[in-house]
């Protein structure tokens, strides 16, 4: 009876996570006729595929780094900055919504705002003579994709790191002050070393979050960027040039990378929680 309450969750995980993952893993080692093969995995050693993975890794890393830095600053302002509850509560609520806002709606919102004829783009050009396109900014590029990803990376960072900041004991800061440490020394020698596992683990989680963001990348850039998710979509959508076996192998590579990043997050998160208890 104790397991009855979690049975729907276990069923959901099995049907929509474990079974599709196993289907991808098995499909990566099968031919169109169902025979076992390593050709799909070996086919990943192509220049276009390696470049796609490398570009995806760069976009994911930089969006995770910026998301961590900006989100940490905002979370610190929430916890230690003395923000009134009238600002703090809506900000945390918005972070919970924005961290799950992705895909076609997010891509459309940024195209309508920062696209070639977006609201802010046209306003800057007509009112101030600032031509973002002439300055080299292009939303439909890796740079634009990083900026778009920040919309859900920063809120996710705020949601994850805020409990860790709230877990910092006041006695630690008081002890550092009694010993003559300045605020900067406290952060450099006490707070940041304690928070480092949480920060590094959250960075890994944000990296995995960006690396697996398929719908946003496709909706925003189409086929103009050689990203791993876009290349995967091209292989499995069923056109003449599609190769489902190679698509499964591409998906397997993405599963391995995101799985490794999530494993790092779980391990480091567990270590940080020992300090904060």
Characterization of the model:
The protein is globular. It has 277 residues and is mostly helical. It is built from 12 helices and no strands. The protein has one domain: MetI-like (MetI-like fold), CATH 1.10.3720.10. The longest helix is centred in the first third of the chain and has 34 residues, at 47-80. Helix content is 75%, strand content 0%. Helix 3 (47-80) crosses helix 9 (183-211) and helix 8 (170-178) runs antiparallel to helix 9. The chain crosses the membrane at residues 61-83, 104-124, 144-165, 186-207, 213-234, 246-268. It is found in: Cell membrane. One of its GO terms (cellular component) is plasma membrane. One of its GO terms (biological process) is transmembrane transport. It is a multi-pass membrane protein.
Task: Please outline what is shown here.
With 277 residues, the chain is mostly helical.
Oligomeric state of the chains present here: single chain
- How many helices? The count is 12
Estimate the global geometry from the Cα principal axes: globular
The tally of beta strands, per DSSP, is 0
Main sheet attributes: strand count, strand direction, barrel closure? none
The low-confidence runs, each spanning 5 or more residues with pLDDT under 50, are none
CATH topology name, in short, is MetI-like fold
Keywords: Cell membrane, Membrane, Transmembrane, Transmembrane helix, Transport
Pfam families: BPD_transp_1
Domain ABC transmembrane type-1: 53-265
Protein name: ABC transporter permease subunit
